[in-house]
Amino acid sequence: MDKLKKLLEEADKAVYASQLESNSDNIGYSHQAIEKVEKALKDAPHNTSPTSDEQHAKDMLRRLKETQAAVNEIQND
């Protein structure tokens, strides 16, 4: 879970950077960071009932993806 937590922090920083300056480098980096979190969640052993850390990670990933989608939409306008 420590690796997942670190990946989430990196993704959060990357998405935040893309909000501040939505250039192709920042947006590309944030997409990569989000993909790493998704892969880590997929590769994590699955419990029948998710732990609170796992649920928190899934919720944070969803919010990061929503924020990134909004940044992409603004950039495309």
Main beta sheet, described?
none
Number of strands: 0
Shape field? elongated
Binned, the helix content reads: over 70%
Q: Which key features would you list for this structure?
A:
77 residues
Task: Describe what this molecule looks like in 3D.
With 77 residues, the protein is mainly alpha-helical. Helix content is 83%, strand content 0%. The protein has 3 helices and no strands. Helix 1 runs antiparallel to helix 2 and helix 2 runs antiparallel to helix 3. The longest helix is centred in the last third of the chain and has 25 residues. The model has no long low-confidence stretch (mean pLDDT 87).
Any chance you could write out the topology, listing elements then pairs?
Layout: H1 2-20, H2 24-43, H3 52-76
Helix pairs in contact: 1-2, 1-3, 2-3
